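TICKET: design request
STATUS: open
ATTACHED STRUCTURE:
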């Protein structure tokens, strides 16, 4: 509603000013809410991306863990089979028994190395407490040898 003052000037009534202020405030709140929603969606997208990366890492970890476990299992089964063969040999077959014992010794060494490599790998993936020394468990010389091989096989920039 427009009111005419005695001087001939026009002015708006107070109701229009209140409606204008309410609409301006509503527009401001709407813009702020849209900004908040956009920031929340961006933060949610970052979290989703991080969770996807963690899931991929864990999936890779589990796959490699299973492969390494299977590698140790192959050695154990191979040693067990060789022991069964040794048990089946007659005591008179001295040369065959000696050969089989030599074969078992090589397989036990391979099995031992597979276990040590698995322990080393678990340590690289923080599966042991920080105050537990894998180097002392494996003996320093053996640990250093495995570490040098593992470091040589690591891609550049990979921690």
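STATUS: resolved
RESOLUTION: sequence designed for all positions
ATTACHED SEQUENCE:
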């Amino acid at each position: 509603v427009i009111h005419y003052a005695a001087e001939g000037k026009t002015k708006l009534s107070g109701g229009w000013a209140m409606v204008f202020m309410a609409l301006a405030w509503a527009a401001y709140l709407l813009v702020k809410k849209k900004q908040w929603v956009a920031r929340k969606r961006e933060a949610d997208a970052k979290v989703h991306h991080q969770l996807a990366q963690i899931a991929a890492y864990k999936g890779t970890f589990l796959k490699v863990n299973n492969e390494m476990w299977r590698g140790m299992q192959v050695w154990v089964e191979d040693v067990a089979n060789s022991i069964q063969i040794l048990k089946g040999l007659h005591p008179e077959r001295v040369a065959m028994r000696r050969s089989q014992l030599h074969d078992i010794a090589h397989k036990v060494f391979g099995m031992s190395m597979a276990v040590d490599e698995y322990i080393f790998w678990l340590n690289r993936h923080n599966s042991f407490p920080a105050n537990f020394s894998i180097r002392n468990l494996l003996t320093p010389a053996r640990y250093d040898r495995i570490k040098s091989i593992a470091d040589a096989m690591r891609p550049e920039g990979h921690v």
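CLOSING REMARK: The longest strand covers residues 2-4. The chain has a mean pLDDT of 88.
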